[in-house]
């Protein structure tokens, strides 16, 4: 800026500055408002269309029905919900231990060099399109598991959910690792100073201190698993099957249809607008929305509780 | 650091006096105490029991420590007597913490750090290949410069060392005893399952001391344990250290010289460059040091 007439400069630039600041303010506000607007419109649209569905189909039988055969007009959502739960549970069993262990390795054990190789590799894993995972599950994983002696159908929830688990590992590991790396070294030193081994420091000091971040990573990853579509459509099949609690392996080894897969089905089938088959998509969508929404709420509650306890 | 101002070199680190608002005050105080330093009226406590020497429990022989290419300690020789308080003083950056950390091999945790020479603990060189640093640290406890309680309950903080060291019998009793010895039990008795982070700074540091002594180590290393504390908390910690010396060997780093004079039996003076310039009875160091540089440092003429 010039050093000419200080006074004139002072007022002129102030005018320009204030106008610019105002512009930034509104620009930023507009973007923030837009995201809220989009979210609200999505929920409203879902709700309106779901209402159209529930005019034609009894809500109670929708939420408690154990049979889903949309082409025949049977709309019981439980087979879809339980298939989603099965996929989520199995993917959690795969992703949580591996993802957490990878995070501990990266944060506590890996040398700087190793970390500089592994972290980008994990990020690449996170960037692979899900259609590739779906393909891998169908074309490689299912045949391998069959060769390994499992009596799997061509389409089955086991392969699909293992692959979903693999897909969400980077999410668990990278968010958990961030949380663990944020634990101050002074706490590690306190642990070592008391004669703890590296493993004891990792599990007894670092993980507890990072627990709220680690937990958030689980919830985020599981929300992702619940909403995952492509892998379960490609490898899990399209046949709705109610969870048989006495024999859950039957559900794993055979094809199943998750909520997301059923929505894809509703769009891709010949069902045209106006039919309950088509509108069922929105009812499922709304259900899905509430499931993930309550999971996020839960995770916030849990994170807040641990934060209180630990900070 | 501005080591050429007398304020810093006479050990009157403003931080030692607690809050930032007290800095001006403490500057005034240290100024006047500076005068008294020149008259060499150091308040060296008479610790008569300590007059006779005990055997060395920790002995450094020609220790050099490097961080990468930089040398932080130069051929340090020192024999630390058992069940006495040994103070390490010197301007900041002269290697006091480095020396302390080389005793219990905490330097192992810093990739760039390299230790040469012999460091004997109970006659055994701790840098021998067959020494497990984890086992070593179970015998040598440590208290750090700023309080670092775990984000766990007060009880779990103190019990942690017992747990990892497998000393799992009478945990309750040991936890209570450690808190009592750390002069904290009265204040926290009915909040043992509340988080250690909810305590005040001075209480947190006493919690860390309780945590360090609970597994009953032989040596307690303290790296400026009072530097983040207000004067009241500092004097509590000092009283505590004198008591602890009845059962433990205490090695304390401080750059508060009055503190060293008050609580220690032996004093080691490190000066810039990582040299241990003089090591002797505290009274001797503060009243009649051999080295001119030590005298200059103690009287605030140089840093
Ligand atoms: N982790 C480290 N990496 C590199 N240099 C270090 C490290 N810690 C200390 N040093 C250097 O070693 C010297 C001594 O430091 P330190 O032992 O902390 O001194 P003091 O405790 O007396 O203030 C300083 O020059 C400091 O910069
Ligand atoms: Mg230091």
Automatic annotation (TrEMBL), chain A:
It is found in: Cell membrane; Membrane. Pfam families: BPD_transp_1. Gene3D superfamilies: MetI-like. GO terms for cellular component: plasma membrane. Signal peptide: none annotated. Belongs to the binding-protein-dependent transport system permease family. CysTW subfamily. Part of the binding-protein-dependent transport system for phosphate; probably responsible for the translocation of the substrate across the membrane. This is Phosphate transport system permease protein. The gene is pstC.
């Amino acid at each position: 800026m010039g050093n000419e007439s200080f006074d004139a400069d002072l007022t002129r630039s102030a005018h320009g500055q204030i106008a610019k600041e105002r512009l930034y303010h509104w620009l930023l506000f507009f973007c923030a408002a837009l995201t809220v607007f989009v979210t609200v419109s999505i929920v409203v649209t879902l709700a309106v269309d779901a209402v159209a569905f529930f005019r034609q189909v009894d809500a109670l039988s929708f939420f408690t029905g154990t049979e889903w055969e949309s082409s025949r007009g049977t709309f019981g959502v439980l087979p879809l919900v339980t298939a989603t739960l099965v996929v989520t549970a199995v993917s959690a069993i795969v992703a949580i231990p591996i993802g957490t262990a990878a995070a501990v390795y990266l944060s506590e054990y890996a040398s700087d060099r190793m970390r500089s190789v592994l972290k980008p590799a994990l990020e690449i894993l996170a960037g692979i399109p899900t259609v590739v995972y779906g393909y891998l599950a169908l074309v490689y994983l299912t045949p391998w598991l069959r060769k390994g002696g499992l009596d799997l159908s061509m389409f089955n929830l086991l392969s699909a959910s293992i692959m979903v688990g693999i897909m969400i590992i980077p999410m668990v590991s990278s968010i958990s690792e961030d949380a663990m790396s944020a634990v101050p070294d002074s706490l590690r030193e306190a642990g070592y100073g008391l004669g703890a081994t590296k493993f004891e420091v990792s599990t007894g000091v670092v993980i507890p201190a990072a627990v709220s971040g680690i937990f958030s990573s689980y919830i985020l990853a599981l929300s992702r698993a619940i909403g995952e579509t492509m892998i379960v459509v490609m490898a899990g099949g399209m046949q709705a099957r109610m969870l048989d609690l006495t024999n859950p392996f039957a559900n794993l080894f055979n094809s199943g249809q998750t909520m997301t897969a059923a929505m894809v089905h509703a769009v891709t089938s010949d069902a045209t607008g106006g039919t309950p088959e088509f509108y069922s998509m929105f009812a499922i969508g709304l259900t899905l929305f509430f499931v993930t929404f309550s999971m996020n709420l839960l995770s916030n509650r849990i994170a807040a509780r641990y934060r209180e306890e630990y900070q | 650091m501005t080591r050429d101002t007398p304020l810093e070199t006479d050990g009157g680190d403003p931080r030692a006096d607690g809050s930032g608002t007290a800095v001006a005050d403490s500057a005034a105080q240290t100024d006047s105490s500076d005068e008294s330093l020149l008259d060499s009226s150091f308040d060296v406590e008479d610790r008569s029991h300590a007059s006779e020497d005990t055997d060395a429990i920790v002995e450094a022989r020609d220790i050099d420590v490097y961080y990468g290419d930089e040398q932080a300690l130069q051929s340090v020789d020192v024999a630390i007597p058992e069940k006495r308080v040994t103070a390490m003083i010197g301007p900041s950056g002269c290697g006091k913490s480095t020396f302390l950390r080389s005793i219990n091999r905490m330097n192992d945790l810093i990739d760039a750090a390299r230790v040469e020479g012999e460091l004997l603990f109970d006659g055994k060189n701790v840098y021998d290949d067959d020494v497990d640093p984890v086992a070593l640290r179970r015998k040598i406890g440590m208290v750090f410069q700023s309080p670092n309680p775990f984000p766990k309950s007060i009880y779990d903080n103190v019990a942690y060392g017992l747990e990892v060291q497998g000393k799992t019998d009478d945990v309750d009793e040991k936890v209570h005893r450690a808190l009592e010895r750390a002069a904290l039990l009265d204040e926290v008795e009915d909040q043992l399952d509340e988080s250690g982070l909810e305590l005040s700074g001075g209480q947190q540091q006493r919690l860390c001391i309780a945590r360090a002594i609970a597994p009953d180590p032989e040596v307690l290393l303290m790296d400026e344990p009072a530097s983040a504390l207000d004067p009241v908390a500092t004097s509590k910690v000092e009283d505590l250290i004198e008591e602890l010396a009845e059962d433990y060997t205490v090695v304390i780093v401080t750059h508060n010289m009055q503190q060293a004079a008050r609580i220690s039996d032996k004093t080691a003076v490190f000066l810039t460059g990582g040299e241990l310039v003089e090591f002797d009875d505290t009274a001797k160091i503060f009243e009649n040091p051999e080295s001119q540089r030590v005298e200059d440092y103690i009287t605030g003429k140089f840093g």
